[in-house]
Specification:
- By secondary structure, this protein is mostly helical.
- The protein has one domain.
- Helix content is 56%, strand content 7%.
- It contains 6 helices and 4 strands.
- The strands form 2 sheets. Strands 1-2 form a two-stranded antiparallel sheet. Strands 3-4 form a two-stranded antiparallel ribbon.
- Strand 3 and strand 4 form a beta hairpin.
- Helix 1 packs across helix 5 and helix 4 crosses helix 5.
- It is globular.
- The protein starts with 7 loop residues before the first helix and ends with a strand.
């Protein structure tokens, strides 16, 4: 596996460019996987961040930014993103699908990078191990306030 030789400045610029879509995909997966009172939230709300408190979105953006920046030491993020571009989902953009897999893998949902048939097995395992070993963080939707916004717990 070739390591992407980006400077931190270049990696930061790349992350900023793609942060919005990666975050939207991560949040879509969060709403899909989480439920409150046994109600799947992705069926109740649009799959985007408009129903998430602003500080929660910032916390998720920080998480994804850190994930992307530190990934350059482990695998080629651009190479990984190309596999998603070549196998675009009908529901999500390629970067949103990548963001969803970041969520699923880091949360330990049993799906994600390692089981995608369009990603080479070795790369999927490297990315999955990277997530499990470096970015294990639990994100749970806590509650809905009177304005309809959800908060993270």
């Amino acid at each position: 596996m070739e390591v992407l030789n980006l400077t931190l400045e270049d990696a930061t610029a790349q992350v900023k460019k793609n942060l919005y879509e990666l975050t939207e995909g991560f949040i879509a997966a969060l709403f899909f996987a989480d439920s409150i009172n046994d109600e799947r939230l992705d069926l109740r709300y649009d799959m985007n961040s408009q129903n998430l408190n602003g500080s929660c979105r910032e916390e998720i953006e920080d998480f994804i930014r850190d994930w992307c920046k530190s990934s350059v030491a482990y695998f080629n993020l651009e190479e990984l993103a190309k596999y998603y571009e070549e196998n675009e989902s009908q529901e999500l953009t390629p970067l949103m699908s990548l963001g969803a897999d970041i969520y699923f893998t880091c949360q330990g949902h049993g799906v994600g990078f390692w089981d995608r048939d369009f990603i080479p097995k070795e790369l999927g395992e490297i990315v999955s191990d990277y997530c499990r070993n470096n970015f294990k963080k639990e994100f749970y939707l806590a509650y809905e306030d009177e304005s309809g916004l959800f908060f993270l717990m």
